[in-house]
Design goal:
alpha+beta; Double Stranded RNA Binding Domain; 4-stranded mixed sheet; 31% helix
Length: 89
């Protein structure tokens, strides 16, 4: 079982790689993480559920995750709010 980085570290790395979007990370009871991306004062949002410890174990994996999140964010921009469950990215 992979050990993930501290939640604040995960959030900071994702924020650095997902600007200009804001990022909020929340740990779930099942040890997965939920990430919410949004822009201040805009009704544009992507919420991703089910991010695993493996995806958050080091900076390299978080940068890869940030790239995937950015892709999903732009792919779903047709709607104002989106949610997505990641599995095995």
């Amino acid at each position: 079982m992979a050990t993930r980085l501290p939640l604040m570290t995960i959030e900071n790395i994702l924020r650095d790689h997902l600007r200009p979007f804001q990022c909020d990370c929340h740990a779930q009871e099942d040890s997965h993480i939920t990430v919410r991306l949004y822009k201040e004062h805009l009704d544009e949002e992507l919420t991703v559920f089910g991010i695993t410890d493996e995806q958050c174990r080091d900076t390299e994996n978080l940068v890869r995750l940030a790239q995937e999140l950015r892709f999903e964010l732009y792919a779903t921009r047709g709607g104002s709010k989106s949610s997505l469950k990641l599995s095995g990215l």
